[in-house]
Amino acid sequence: MTNSTIRRALLALVLALAGCERDDTVIPPADAHVPTVDGGTDAAAPDRTAPTIVDTDPDEGSVDVARDRAVTITFSEPMRMGTWSARAEGELVVGADASVDGETLTIDAPDGWPAASEIEIRLDDDWRDGAGNLVARPFVLRFTTADDDGPAVVESSPAEGASDVSVRAGALQIRFSEPMDQGAGTVRLEGGPGSLDATAPSWSATAVTYPLVDLAHDTSYRVVLEGFRDLAGNALDATTLGGDAVLDFTTGPDDEAPRAIASRPVEGHVDVGVLELGGTLEVSFDEDMDTAITSVPIHVGTDAPVDVDVSWPDARRAEIAVAGRLRLDRAIRVDLRGLRDVAGNALAPEPYLVDGELDFLTGTDAFVPFVVASTPLEAATGVTNPVGEVRLAFSETMDESTAEVTVRDNVGGTFTVTGTWTGAGTTLIVPFEFRAGRTYEVDARALRDRTGTPLSDAHAYLGDGVLDFTTATPTGASCADPLQLEHGTTDPATGRTTFLLRGNLRTRNNGSQSCDVEGHGGQDAVVQYTKTTPDLSDASGNGRALRITATTATNNVDLEVFRGVCDPRDPAAASAMVRCAMDQRTWDVVLDVPAGDYFLWVANTASRGDITITVEEVATLRDGETCETAWDTTSAIYTAPTAPGAPHVWDVPASLGSSVDVDDANGPDDGLACVETERDDVVLSFTKSEADTVLDVSVTASTFTIASELVFGGCRPDAPGATRGACVSGAGTGGRRFTARGPAGPVHVWLSSGLSGRTFSGARVEIREIPASVAPGSSCATAIPIAPGTSVPVMPDHAARYDAPSCFTPAANVTWYAFDSTEQLTHVRADLGGAIALVDAASGRTIGCADDASVRPLFHFAPIGSRVCVAIESGALIRSLAVEPIDYDGAGAQPAARVPIDPPSLAGTVFDDYDRETWLAATPTRLYQNMGLLAVIDAPAAGGPSHLEGGLDVHAAGRAAVTVGEALFAVTQASLSSSQRVFRYTDPSGAWAPEVWDLGAPSGTYTGFINALTSDGTSLIAVEERLTSGTTVRNARVFQLSTTTAGPPAALGQIQDGYNVTGVAADAQFLYFFGRAPGASRPDLYRLARADLAGGTPVLPTRIYTFPASTGPSSSAAAEMALDDLTSPRYLYLSGDAGSIHVIENPAGESPRYLGAIWRGESGDGAWDLQRSTGDIFVFSTSLERQGAWYRLER
Questions:
Q1: What is the largest distance, in Å, between two alpha-carbon atoms of the chain?
Q2: Read out DSSP for 1071-1103?
Q3: Which of 264, 619, 987, 1019 allows an S-S link to 282, with CB 3.0 to 4.6 Å?
Q4: 301: number of Cβ within 10 Å
Q5: How many domains does one find in the chain?
Q6: Which residues form the domain of 217?
Q7: Residue 164's CB: how many other CB atoms inside 10 A?
Q8: Backbone φ, ψ for residue 735 (5° rounding)
Q9: Rounded CA gap, 239 and 245, in Å?
Q10: Where is there biased composition of kind Low complexity (predicted)?
Q11: What are the pLDDT digits (tens) for 417-465?
């Protein structure tokens, strides 16, 4: 008895005892989150309402939350478990657990949440209610836990236990593990002489500094810390600093040279008045000196030196008697190099004295003061930003009663700034916020020396008494270096300013892109724009809206706008964010906001490229551009119905770069549900008069393909009370016609370009409000019941059109039928041509749609008992259906399960996202997935944290991989086939240890690239791709390698005419592969007997399946293949187009049969593998989550 037979028997018993309760979950398709035109059942109207979050405990932004408190999130209705994460300060909380009980989700940390930490609870957008409706958007809850941990000392100077500490330490510095209460705590010095001034602390948030002077040599000291506590009042951890909260250190011996630290007159001064000195010079030292030395030499001009007396008022201050010794206009040198400290160490010549002598010039102010140096330097250009002050050093002591200078810039600004004197009146510090990219003049000519002599305006350094410099042109790389209005190009006619942000100048990630659910996190840049006008509603009539565009030619761009806050990591940034828009080639955003400073952050979503931003203030908004200016029945483009039953018509003109309002702005689900639009959108409004009517909508593009979505009860999909209606993509010049159900009241129709680089090209929109039909066959909900069979009679004659699937022409009416599946796979074939579609009744999702199902049947994989609706074009020649239940026991019939793998952090890597895969390989316990060429994701197959495995710089991961047990094998990427290799990345224990596996293979072993690698359970098999060369058709060679021992590959044989081989599978009897025969445009599925390869003659393979156009893999894409059994396979799984996975039954038999697609992915996807130990298939897909996620298709 097969598994399917057992399941049927069990199902019959359950139905007999308890009635039928179907599992309405389906395989997640690419459009699973799209509200459908009819998702109902026969019993009641369908539940299409997206669940919402109605309460949280704790509340968003709560502080001092108890660490043992469980988090509860309450939904509007009972929920199924989805993907979630809990992080503390950005790190995953180990051990956190979640459970769902009806409407309540509970998340708990058994070991307690980390103290004093911001906790972020994040729910992805895969949470569903019982009807399968997804939440509208991801959800984030943030709160801060209570601080109940005491602070610790993490660093000090002197360090704990330090020896040989200099007595010149000058300060005690202590750094704590967290911000401290700066009004608490004191220190006490014990163990010897010295001064530790506990009354003069200098605090930062986590550190404090105290003056520490007059220490003795060779002395053991203790600094006792008392009363310190953090901001929450937690006392300092008593075990810190060696366990006693006491800092111990020992000073070194007295082997340090003493230093002069001050003098009168000041070293190097000029115009020193002899009478002002009073016959005495003074010099101060930093330690006790040998007071037995009572004379020093003095040089007056060119006279011979003479000794003068030295007296010591105290051991650190010398008075030198010079009465009668000095002369006017002489250079004076007092030689102090003979002085010693009490330990006999000679005076250090530096830094104060420079040469060990006190030098000055006497005079009667014969010198004009001048600037001798400055920071920045005179005439400097490209001065690094930010510049917060200027320093001017003068040739002599200046009059400290005057400290004002004039600052001028090149845009007309003039400012009077008061500086601060230091260095005994010889240095002026001028504080000012010097803007990036400007030229400045700092005019110091109003300054005087002590005798009133004005500053020189002719000295060589400044030249004119004015310091000139230019700050560096900003790059926008940070808040310290933003681009501002003057750094853009302003069109005087429109007032529009254009900024160019160079990709190569963006060097850091400042934390913008908060709404980017794909976690790109690339290097970003910022423009600061000051809006001077009020918003449009201002009573003055002078209001303006802010229009911002961001465009890139490289990948896509994220745009985030803050008001009044620059730093995206600032705690105030969340409330200051005005708009966050992610991942499009071009953004055009209109913001009706008040005056103020706005910070516009942009970043590419992948590799860096140039980004162009334009900003302007506009007085009016274009019709149809925003919700406030939506076209309606009063607009000039509207035509009222011309007769009963005629439509309301809007001839919508092409846009001129209109604002993007709903395209993934502020979250991944604020945009159109059925397409990732690449350009702009427009909107029109209509009032639905009755609740029980249906809107019949037709959208016809003027030129390029567009998409359209209806929103009921609000304008934007994220508006309070708004619900999504139908959404269609691919509306071309032939038109798309669809129906939508919703409440009475306002309805907004969004139209958007569906092509990259295209603006909205115009469209005709027709809307009819028609009665809801209850006639049999009018909809999936009222479908005519049929039973599976080989010849089921039908008469599609319903004379109306409700919920027509996409392959039906706009004029076609629809007749609906329905059956309950009796196997996990059902094929439906029509007797003649005509439009026909299968629709999953539980979700309303179209499973398959064709204009002719008489040759190739439609198929549906689903649990037994699933309701399937069949839409048939009314008036078609179809008169019977073959509804064939198929006993399917392979992977993918049951609902796909998301594997809760936490993606690895990309911080510090070259990667921007996870969607770079070409292969995925499953072992019994691990999943491996390549990240382009340079790294491999290593994740537990059961779910959990993942990480990146690297070390592939030389032998980058190629396009094929296979596992044998826990061992992972892969081919490498190479520019020449002769240098391509086979590697084993993990050993049989699963340890990451890359090594060459085709060891000893001589150069040139492979004459064609290998993009196909598999295992038959006992050996590895690799097949060359073998592209053509001109008109020459090359045979593909097949190689075999051991799975246990490294060594050169053995040639098994050649495949005749088998080139472009992109996928391979093997059992004991056959080799199966994708290959493109000569003259074919796409590859087909082939097999050949392995025994035939051994004959030495190229083997002509047998074609066993040809994919219909646009459903099979492309010629260039790597194609995954896997057999469910390596001896007697029942199923062959293989890749198709757009990340799909298909299944062939009886691949080794005489008549292999195509069964259908068990997975619908997204364009660019393609990584999956069969886990041989379970028979399940693991797949990585971006079809449901733009960042990508892992799913398990169970057998």
A1: 133
A2: EEEEEE-TT-SS-EEEEEEHHHHTTSSPBPPEE
A3: 264
A4: 12
A5: 8
A6: 153-251
A7: 12
A8: 90, 155
A9: 6
A10: 38-52
A11: 999 999 888 999 999 989 888 999 999 999 998 878 899 998 999 999 9
Q: 609 burial class (0-12, 13-18, 19+ CB within 10 angstroms)?
A: middle
* C-alpha dihedral (34, 37, 39, 45), degrees to nearest 10: 130
CATH code, domain with 796: 2.60.120
CA distance 1189 to 931: 14
Same domain membership, residue 455 and residue 334: no
Global pTM reads 0.59
264 in a structural domain: yes
The dihedrals phi and psi of 1104, each to the nearest 5 degrees, come to -110, -10
CB crowding 752-777: b at 16 or more within 10 Å, else e: bbbeeebbbbbbbbbbbbeebbeeeb
Tell me the per-residue pLDDT of 953-988, one tens digit each, with 9 for 90 and over.
556 677 899 999 999 999 887 655 566 789 999 999
612 and 639: one domain?
A: no
Tens digit of each residue's pLDDT (9 = 90 or more) over 184-240: 899 999 999 999 998 888 888 889 999 998 899 999 999 999 999 887 788 898 777
Structure tokens at 1147: 């691949």
1058-1099 pLDDT, tens per residue?
667 889 999 999 999 988 777 777 788 999 999 999 888 888
Indicate if 750 and 671 belong to the same structural domain: yes
Give the burial class of 205: count Cβ atoms within 10 A of its Cβ; 0-12 exposed, 13-18 middle, 19 or more buried: exposed
What residue has token string 């409700």?
802
Position 768 scores a pLDDT of: 96
- Highest mean pLDDT among 332-336, 550-554, 575-579, 663-667 belongs to 332-336
End-to-end CA distance of the chain: 16
CA distance 1185 to 33: 10
- Among 335, 361, 387, give the residue marking a domain's end: 361
891 found inside a domain: no
DSSP-assigned letter for residue 1006: -
Please choose, from the candidates 160, 174, 146, the residue with its C-alpha nearest in 3D space to the C-alpha of residue 234.
146
User: Any residues with CB less than 8 A from the CB of 789 and at least 6 apart, and which?
Assistant: 882, 883
Angle 311-312-315 (CA atoms, 0-180°, nearest 5)? 155
Residue 265 lies in a domain: yes
What is the chain's length?
A: 1195
91/329 Cα distance (integer angstroms): 71
What CATH number should be reported for the domain holding residue 313? 2.60.40.1220
- C-alpha separations of 276 from 93, 150, 308, 323, 336 in Å: 72, 59, 19, 11, 22
pLDDT higher than threshold 70 for residue 143: yes
Domain co-membership, 962 together with 1106: yes
